[in-house]
Each structure stands twice: as C-alpha cells, then as structure tokens.
Task: structure prediction
Amino acid sequence: MDATPIIETYARLALAIDRHQPGYLDAYHGPAEWQQQAAAGAPRPLAELAREVEALAAAVAQSDMDASRRDFLTAQVRAMQVSLRLLAGEPVPFVEEVEALYGITPAWTDEARFDEAHRVLADLLPPGGSLAERRDTWRKQLEVSVEQAGAVFPAIFERLRGLTRARFPLPPAEDFEMAFVKDRPWSAYNWYQGGYRSRIEINTDLPLRATALVGLIAHEGYPGHHTEAVIKEARLVVANGWIEHSLAIINSPQCTIAEGIATRALDVLLTDDEQIAWHAEELFPRLGLAHVDARRVQAILHASEQLGGVGGNAAFLMHARGASADEIVAYLQRYSLARENEARKSLDFLTNPLSRTYTFTYHVGGELLDELFAARGERERWFTRLLSEPVTPAQVHAWAGEQVRG
Ligand SMILES: [Zn+2]
Result:
C-alpha cells in the first residue's frame, strides 16, 4: 500500500485525539488544511477513532515503505491505540501502558541506589541539619535572579550552538526565540514551530539556579530538543517527504528518544572538566558566585542524577500499588530530598493523564543512550543517527546489542 494515505490517516488521527486531550500533540507543522479540518465541528467519537487506528495498524504492517519508517510508525500507532483505550476509560495495566506509550519497560529502581547517592551527597554538602535541609541550603545560595540569568544566557547559547553546529548536521537557517513565562508546571520547555524555529520558554516561578543554566539550554536547545526537531525536519520531512515527522505526540516512543537525547545533550558536547572550567572561569564569576567550587557542584549534580528513578518509583506506587497521595509525598521527600510543596507538585504531574507515566522517558531514555554508547563507542556518530533518523527505543536496544564486526 502507498505510504501517502497511511501518513495522512496517522496525522489526522493524532489531530483528532488532541481534540479529546489537548496537549496530546506537542508540535504540529504538517499540512495546515488537516489541522483546520480537525479543529472544525465536534470532536470525533472515540469509538470511531479506535476503529480507524486498528485499520491503520494493519495498513502500516502491510505497507512496503522503508523499514525504519515502518518500525517508527508501528511503535507510534501502538501508542495511539493505548491512548485511545485510556481515553475511553478502559483499565490498562501499568506496565503495558508504559511499554505501549513509550516503547520501554518500566522497572522499579532499588532504593539502595538512592541510599548510595545520599551517602555521596552527605560527604559533599556543607554540614547543618538533615540531608534534605543541607541540600536546600546549598541550592539556595546558587539561586540567581531572572536578570542575572538573562545576562548570561546569550553567552551560553552562543557556545552550545557553535559546538552543535560544528559537530552535528544543523541547517544554517535554524533559529529560536527565548521567553520568560510564569504559571507553568515545568521549569523550561521547547515549543517547536516548524520551519527550523523553536520557542524556548523558561518558567520564572521556580528558582533559577546558576548550576542549571547550561544544562537547561543544552536540554531544550543545543543539541537537545530544538536540534533534534530541526535536523529531523530537514532530513526526514523536507528531504524525504516523510510527513509523519512533522508532528510530535507527547505520549509516544518518539518522546523516549527525545528525552534520552535531551538528558545526555550536554555531556555529548562537553566533558566534565570542560563544564567545570566554563563555570569556574566564566559563568560563576559573572553571576556573582566566584567563591563557589565548580568541581564540587559537578559532583553534587552527578550524585543527584542517581535519584532520577525516584519519580518512576512514585509512578509505580501510584498506578500499580495503590499508594495514597500522602504516602507518595512522603516517599518523594525521603528519596528525592524534595520539599513538601515540591513533592505535591510532582503529584500533579503523576495524576495528569498526559504526564502520569512520562517520568520514565527521562531516566530510562537517558540510560538507553548510555547503553548504546557503552556498547558501541563513537558517541558523536551514534548521537548524529539519533538526531537524524526515525529511531525507536527498540532500535537503540538492537544497535546496542549488535555484535561489532571487525
Ligand atoms: Zn525534555
């Protein structure tokens, strides 16, 4: 079967599901006519969409399109089927939900890993009070104002963008705008607009920390979300005519790849020592924090990264083990060292249908890339493939597991 009607059905279905669950489409820069038609009239009945997605899955399986393209669509359509079941109120077992939506198997992280991270943090943080209080005090002294952050962002963008352009096939026409916003559930967000343009928003309700600025721009911009979206538009949509890459579905395996890329973006560009030197020699002095030990900061960041699985465990507690809200808040406070209000905010994230199991895309997505880099080396080459091909989590596993022929 010809690919064109398949892709049109895929895009129209995504647009139709977005009418039932606004935010389902994270980006859309496909044909405007499809979008306008989807927006007109009442949302289409869920049962009708469910029948159509079944037929779409069969059409994809029988099509003779390029294998990487077909594998990508198979995984995306499977996620769509489960989203429709969830929207219809059908109970879907938790593990099945995560496997279908994100193409990964959610695993409970052993608390021994968090305990070990706590031990490392206890050695690194200045004394005074409980470990959570010590980390709080430490983080407070690193907070900077919006004006201070705004003054160093141009330098951060310039360096990360320059490095990204030198190493990855970023089209010269790409550009972004940055905006400070309020009242958002996230700390920063990249909205891809199509035409090689993004809008990067930074939420100023949450404290901005001097230590997080570089990582934030790497994650959202260079070589994270914006870079991936631009390269995929150039390589897949413009060059190949693969229109399915002109939409991003928030509850789908493409997000696992996107967050894996974004969480490892900075470390692909700069070594630990380079990050430390940049903070010590330029950024901390400009932010009035010349006295802060950049090496210790980096070690604390790495130890804190080991707590990435706490959110996944909280999702297990909520959706698979029937824990109460108070139990989950207590769990988050104990293991992620969050303050009570922060833990309650995470709870909102875990109850929203669009984000309830999204937390796995970050740490499992990141670990998926680690597995690939550890098995195959040549980090830049693999990162380029992740940025420019229609990759699924299953494909990354397969790459990592392939025997290196020599
Ligand atoms: Zn992200």
